[in-house]
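haha ok so turns out i had the wrong file open the whole time. this is the CORRECT one, sorry everyone. sequence first:
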Amino acid sequence: MTLSKFLLGVFVLVTGIALTAPASASQFGRVGLDYLVAENETIVVGEVRETYSYWNAPGTFILTDAKIVVSEVLKGDRHLREVTVTLPGGSVDELSTVVVGGAELKPGSSYLLFLHRGDLPGAPGVQMVRDHIQGVFELKASENGLRAVSQASADTLLPDASGVTEAPGGKRGLRLEAMKETVRELTAHGRQEVK
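then structure:
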């Protein structure tokens, strides 16, 4: 790693901390399932097989690719069996870049993901989680089956137009089957919202 990359990484990290401190100040406006369904091209359920962090093409920012085996497509190409999702941040050698409020995808974990093709620094046209933590629902076992819990459920969100501040499903999340049905309905009709 060159000294300039190291210094750039330190600058990005320090700037990120300065812009977001205190942590409670890193707030996003709450979005509901209707928005997530309407504004994202691809919605999948899948398991992260592996992640790989690297410097972007110009060598100015660390990105992480997560390879996901798709078990179900709720919106988008029905033949999709694997997708690579690119996230801002990650660790290369001794340097880490952390994006406050950024989505996290861990190998071996399963998720319901809202994906959109877009541009990240030095990486145009990648599949990404545009809505950061609000676009990732981790699948967790419960006594009544799997639940989809938003990564935003632990954060404070700014109220939406209805005054709601909790991520869809709140801290307990939504039953996965019920959430998938709602996503299908919203995809077909584009009008309902579940809070």
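Residues 52 and 65 are 5 Å apart (CA to CA).
again sry for the mixup
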